[in-house]
Write a structure and sequence with these properties.
CBS-domain, 4 strands, globular, CBS_dom, CBS_dom_sf, CBS domain, CBS domain-containing protein, Diverse_CBS-Domain
Length: 138
């Protein structure tokens, strides 16, 4: 297997993002529309947090609703993105190796890492990206 390959080679660069002024109904719609499980929360391109689909499931019955329906917005109107998102982020840089990234994800309880240059979001890498990279090696 290749050594010292930077995570920038497997990260998603066209990242779906939301802002603090967006609402959870919009976030749910983006999760379903783009078939993703993590959305960075930004101000401009500055990363503020990350919202996962699991975060929404914790406050709603979203998993009991099929993909064409939207959860009763009453539940979502009780919370803001800032209240639900993860704020204490672990970030990696584009030069972080795939191996180092995999070690972080394997030792933590989350499945996506923002890829940043300083505080500026340049991509996102997920456990799915890592698995696909591994599959491509064989």
């Amino acid at each position: 297997m290749k050594q010292h390959v930077p995570v920038s080679t497997i990260m998603s660069k066209n990242v779906v993002k939301i802002t603090l002024t967006d609402n959870l109904t919009k976030a749910e719609s983006l999760f379903k529309k783009h078939n993703i499980r993590h959305i960075p929360v930004v101000e401009g391109n500055k990363i503020l947090g990350i919202l996962s689909y699991t975060d929404l499931l914790r406050i709603s019955f979203a998993d009991a609703v099929d993909d064409e329906e939207v959860v009763d917005v009453t539940v979502y109107n009780m919370f803001t993105i800032e209240q639900v998102m993860s704020k204490n982020l672990v970030k990696v840089s584009p030069d972080t190796t795939i191996k180092e990234t995999a070690e972080i994800l394997a030792s933590r309880e989350f499945h996506a890492l923002p890829v940043c240059e300083g505080d500026l979001l340049v991509g996102i890498v997920t456990t799915t990206d890592l698995i696909q990279y591994l599959i491509d090696q064989y």
